[in-house]
Design brief:
- The structure is a single chain.
- With about 180 residues, this protein is mainly alpha-helical.
- Helices cover about 75% and strands about 5% of the residues.
- The protein has a two-stranded antiparallel ribbon with strand order 1-2.
- β1 and β2 form a beta hairpin.
- α3 packs antiparallel against α5, α3 packs parallel to α6 and α8 runs antiparallel to α9.
- The longest helix has 27 residues.
C-alpha cells in the first residue's frame, strides 16, 4: 500500500493510482539531471540563468550600471543563494518568470509580436512549475501594461494570452488528470 510508504500530504491517492500533487514540468526538467547523477546542478544552473535574465531585464529598463548593481545584490541575497542550492521548483519558476518579463519588455519596446507571444509562452511554462505566483504576476503585468500603454496594452495582452494557451492547456489537462 503506497499510503504506508508515503504518509505525507504531498501525494494524491486513488483506488488504483498515486502521484505527487505538484505540476509536472519541474520534475520533467529535473529528470535528465537526476538520471545523469547531477541533480545537484539543476538549481545552480537555473539560478545562473535567472541572474542572466535579470541582468538583461534590468539593463533594458535601468541601464548597465543599475543592472550590474541589481544583479550583484540579487546574487548575494541569502534567499537566492540558499534557494539556488535546492531541488525546489522555485528556481525553475524564477527562471521562467525572469525570461518572460525580459521577453515582454523587449517585445513591447521593440514592438515585436513574436517576443510578446514568447513572453506568454514562458509565463505559461512558469504556471506549470508553480501556479500560485503566476496569478499575482499576471495581475501586475496587466496593470503595468495598462498604466504605461493605455489602450495599446490590449493587443500585447492578447498576444501573451495566445502564447500562454498551449502551456495553460497542459496545466488544465494535468490538473484534470490528477483530480478529475
Amino acid at each position: 500500500n503506497p499510503r504506508d510508504l508515503f504518509p505525507f500530504r504531498h501525494f494524491i491517492f486513488t483506488d488504483t493510482e498515486w502521484f505527487v500533487m505538484y505540476t509536472p514540468l519541474h520534475g520533467v526538467l529535473m529528470a535528465p539531471f537526476t538520471a545523469g547523477g547531477i541533480s545537484w546542478l539543476m538549481g545552480p544552473l537555473e539560478s545562473v540563468l535567472s541572474l542572466l535574465g535579470a541582468f538583461f531585464l534590468m539593463r533594458r529598463l535601468a541601464g548597465e550600471n543599475m543592472a550590474r548593481l541589481g544583479t550583484g545584490v540579487m546574487a548575494l541575497s541569502p534567499f537566492f543563494l540558499f534557494m539556488g542550492a535546492s531541488h525546489m521548483a522555485h528556481n525553475t519558476n524564477l527562471m521562467f518568470v525572469t525570461w518572460a518579463l525580459y521577453s515582454l519588455v523587449r517585445g513591447v519596446q521593440e514592438n515585436r509580436a513574436g517576443l510578446q507571444l514568447l513572453a506568454g509562452f514562458i509565463l505559461g511554462l512558469a504556471l506549470n512549475t508553480k501556479p500560485y505566483p503566476i496569478i499575482p504576476w499576471t495581475i501586475t503585468i496587466t496593470a503595468v501594461l495598462t498604466a504605461f500603454l493605455g489602450r495599446r496594452a490590449l493587443p500585447v495582452l492578447l498576444r501573451m494570452a495566445a502564447g500562454a494557451l498551449l502551456p495553460s492547456m497542459l496545466f488544465l489537462l494535468t490538473n484534470y488528470r490528477y483530480t478529475g
